[in-house]
UniProtKB/TrEMBL annotation:
Family matches, as InterPro entries: YkuD_2
Organism: Legionella oakridgensis ATCC 33761 = DSM 21215
Pfam families per UniProt: YkuD_2
Lineage summary: Bacteria, Pseudomonadati, Pseudomonadota, Gammaproteobacteria, Legionellales
Domain of life: Bacteria
Name of the protein described by the UniProt record: Murein L,D-transpeptidase catalytic domain family protein
Amino acid sequence: MASIRKDNEKEKKLWIFALTIACCSLPSYGMPLDNPYCKRPTIDDSASLLGITPSDSQKLTYFLHGIKTMLHHEAPTMNQAMVDKILTTLKCANQYDVEHTPVLTVIDYSRPSSEKRLWIFDLKGKKLLFHTYVSHGIKSGILSSNYFSNQYNSKASSIGVYKTDKAYYGRHGLSMRLDGLEKGFNDNASNRAVVMHGGWYVDEKFVKKYGRAGRSWGCPAVPSELTKQIINTIKDNSLFVAYYPNENWFLKSKYLHCDNYSHLPQVAQLETNATEPLENRDEILFAEKNNNNKREENEPIVVMAADSYQRIFNTKVPLKRMLRRQINHTEYVALNNKEFKNIVADNPELLNSATKDGSNELCFVIPVIKKVRGYYATEMQIIPLGKIKEVVTSSTQKNQPNYTIHFQTNASIHLKTTNQFIRWLGL
């Protein structure tokens, strides 16, 4: 009879867990996100359903063997070194009695952003839930990442073990907070506002079109069309591992050293750069209004739609000069002096030509700050200056001329170059 009662209790918990997961997978609209009738499973539920307690080494070994088999089957492109670190992390999290739900998110930052390098697994069902693209920080690298930071305002990604926190609606729409568990590697994540959010510049269409994902300011941004599904799956206390074969992390992470399960590498691979990389920003053109030889936020820059840029210059779109915000679902690129000079000299008709949707090939844009869901967000706005009457070179410097643009109806403007940091420019 005791055995029957035990089986009934286990079956009851399984039903409760299944209903909870079904409830939490339903779409949610508006605020707040917390629903008292839709609670994530507690650690007691998760642990008992997985059949593991910190002192039960035999069950843990059996469980990890099953996870290893799952990783090889569901994620065959994942390298063995990374698999070993994941297994060690799970084992150490169990040994340290870290509360977490049976969902695991893994990012492989040793892969370029042109590849799908984010996996989400159901540890109980032993299956892959998502495999998709994810961004890295703008200071971490361009196509690939080799610099990581835990410092404020570094605009770089952080490696290590995290737990997912609450979901919320912010300036990027639906987002999710991350709690870094590793001192010196990612424990500043929350204070740095490193969160998971969606990004149009991580969508598969964008990656295929431009050859890589756009970059964030350190947040792991995911494709916008998957954001809701992913966040609703992993929010509230699941494990999240940002992997990179960095010897310092291998040597010092407590989640890799609760025993000898993971062997330390004899030679460091893809070692993280020790110092912050120098920024190599391209110069762009802006309209000088304040006569102080310094671009300010109210001074528009010269841009062109990315599709037009590729067609006119017959070259790849420079994502380092792409606006961080779309305008009417269209990507725009800031022009440099050489490109503008070529238009004036060889294709002056482009100065006043229009695209298929009726907008000008050449546009002037400024940022506009708007309050969205209680947060201040930046949007880009095209400034209508009318038809260009004439462009006059107004500098004796052959390589870096300034220009004066005369319009038919509006006042003239002076164009100058700058390579200063602009917060809404560059992916």
